[in-house]
Structures are given as structure tokens and as C-alpha cells.
Design a protein that fits this description.
mainly alpha
Amino acid sequence: MNTGMGPYKGGTVAAQGVTDDDKTYAVLMHLSVLAHLVLPYISLAIPIIMWLTRKDRSVFIDDHGREAINFQISVTIYSFVLPIIGVIIMFLTLGLGVILLIPLVFLPYVLAIVGMVMAIVRTNKGEYFRYPMTIRFL
């Protein structure tokens, strides 16, 4: 992926020549994570459509769009897999694992909200951002 920002691996990197419209659009892509809380599997279409319509106009939007999509795919996977792991642990421990089940069910949603807030703050400053615990698909 060539984002025009060199070997970016995380940290604070300010984007050059980013307009307020680019920042606003990128913030809206990150805010689409909120739709995951209501429609977990359908909500993935929102950042994909937003990214596809504007990715060629700005490197900043392209990068933030890819990041928002990767994050939402990751959260979707986590929200599906972690409860299954919790149920397996619960059965293997004869019910004692129920203590782990509740946090494992809510962990992806906490990760989504915290990550979204972090992304919005950095995006508003015109910086590139990498979500923690995100699988890179795009």
C-alpha cells in the first residue's frame, strides 16, 4: 500500500495538504463504527461505499478509509469469534468459564468505541492513524 507517507508503522504523522473536507469525510468514515453497534454485519458496507467513492481524490481519505474498513472487519471477526471461545471455555471448565464469557462478549464493542474515539481525535488533527489490534486486509 502506497499511502504517500513513507514507511509509516504508527505513531504521529501529520498529513500534508489535507483540507477540512478531507478531515470531515475521514471522521465520518471512522464514525461509521457506531453502525456496528446496531447492525454488526451490515454496517461494514458504510465505510466501503464511502471509501470507494472518494479514495482517488485524496491520499488522506484513502488511508483512513482503508484503516476504517480493516478495523470494522476485525471488530466483526472479534465479535463473532470471542463469544464462541468464551462458550468453549465455559464448557471445558464446567461452567466456571462464564466469568470470562461476559467480558469476551463486550470486548469487541469496547475496542470499537475506544478505537473510534482515538481515530477521530487524530483525524481531526490531520494525522494518520492506525487502530490497535487490527488485521490488515486492504
